[in-house]
Amino acid sequence: MLSTDLLTVGEIARRSGFAESAVRYYEGLGLLSATRTSGGQRRFERSTLRRLAFIRAARNIGLSLDEVAAALESLPAQRTPTRSDWTKLSGDWRNRLDDQIKALEALRDGLASCIGCGCLSLDRCAISNPADLARADGPGAAYLPSGLRRAESR
Amino acid sequence: MLSTDLLTVGEIARRSGFAESAVRYYEGLGLLSATRTSGGQRRFERSTLRRLAFIRAARNIGLSLDEVAAALESLPAQRTPTRSDWTKLSGDWRNRLDDQIKALEALRDGLASCIGCGCLSLDRCAISNPADLARADGPGAAYLPSGLRRAESR
DNA sequence: CTGGTAGTTGAAGTCAACTTGAAGTCAAAT
DNA sequence: ATTTGACTTCAAGTTGACTTCAACTACCAG
After folding, report:
1. Predicted model pTM
2. What DSSP letter does each residue of B55-75 carry, written as one string?
3. Above 90 in pLDDT, residue A43?
4. What pLDDT does B124 receive?
5. Chain B contacts of A86, Cβ < 8 Å?
């Protein structure tokens, strides 16, 4: 065990649940930062674990790594995020989740109305209708959130 | 316009909303079948449009093309699916959507309990906790359905 | 018959998010 | 001092679902 509180990539991986390769990859992307030993090995601060928890949470919510990067940049560089930093991100995420949930419910309810009707019509079926799915802002459209959406493939 | 009711790949694409390349790709996978003209061009039956509507619906619900293929195989080869064929698939899909919705709600509610607390701890936070996410059958675990899940990356 | 649009193939490219592999170096315990 | 395990880099591979490309052929209106 090191006498400092710096962590190796292996320890970070074990304690965060990410693979070492993922941790290195994230560092390469600039999502994490690390100091180096004289021999060139990475040493992470303990706060990296929280950062990784944040990343996993964001990924669970459906953010891409690009979006994660943007979110992380909106946070202060080295200090622990304040309550309001965190609250803002949480609010965004909540809206995102609400959208996703609404989309799935619309899909499910459309499905319910289809049961037994064999109606998979291109024009009318809420489950398959590409226009409804693409027209994300249409009134009452049964759209999916991006990432769940499969509309026009062009 | 052809005098028969067979459709070219371009017409199928335009009317289904899929790209031509996707239609050809699906035919290559065996999800669609087509007859050929003497010159080797594809000609699709009108029922292909319904099949594509089915495929889009399944994709919207989150099925992979492999799963779509399996579902299509469970349907009768050429005849229109009966009510019970369709009802069974619908039921499966509904369960799947219910699972997805439940997962997202759990995530959202966990997020709500996190707002303002800055608690993104590896051990306790419902949003980021990999153990909870991985333990899909654990009691009350805030898991995501596969495909939405981002737990251990190993 | 000719021109233009639409079709054909197979191979290769794309994207995100990693993982894997090879060849080599560092750290720490004995 | 040696060994073992952990670490390094960079390139290439993986997966799923397509798209793009090039070179070529078919169809059909006029």
Report:
1. 0.80
2. HHHHHHHT--HHHHHHHHHHS
3. yes
4. 59
5. 115-118
* Mean pLDDT on A16-42: 97
Is it the case that residue A52 has pLDDT exceeding 70? yes
Cβ within 8 Å, pair A149-B91: no
pLDDT at residue A138 in the model: 33
Quickly count: other Cβ atoms within 10 Å of residue B28's Cβ. Answer: 9
Gap between the Cα atoms of B57 and B13, Å rounded: 16
Q: In this predicted structure, what is the pLDDT of residue B4? A: 61
Alpha-carbon Rg for chain B in angstroms: 21
Pull the structure tokens for residue A31: 């999502």
Whole-angstrom CA distances from B29 to A15, A150, B32 are: 42, 18, 8
Do the beta carbons of residue B153 and residue A65 sit within 8 Å? no
Give CB contacts under 8 A, 24+ apart, made by B145-148: B145/B62, B145/B96, B145/B99, B145/B100, B145/B103, B147/B62, B148/A60, B148/A62, B148/B100, B148/B103, B148/B104
- Cα A132 to Cα A146: distance, rounded to the nearest angstrom: 14
DSSP single-letter state for residue B43: E
| Residues of chain B under the 50 pLDDT cut | 1-3, 130-147, 149, 152-154
Give the Cα separation of A28 and A22 in Å (integer): 10
- Amino acid found at A90: S
Distance CA A105, CA A99 (A): 10
Cβ distance A107 to B120 less than 8 Å, yes or no, reads no
pLDDT at A1: 47
A35 DSSP β-pair partners = A43
Rounded Cα gap, residues A26 and A94, in angstroms: 25
Find, in chain B, the residue whose alpha carbon is nearest to that of A146. Answer: B60
Name residues whose C-beta falls within 8 Å of residue B75's C-beta, 6 or more positions apart in sequence: B81, B85, B89
Residues 18-57 of B with CB under 7 A from strand C: 20, 24, 40-42
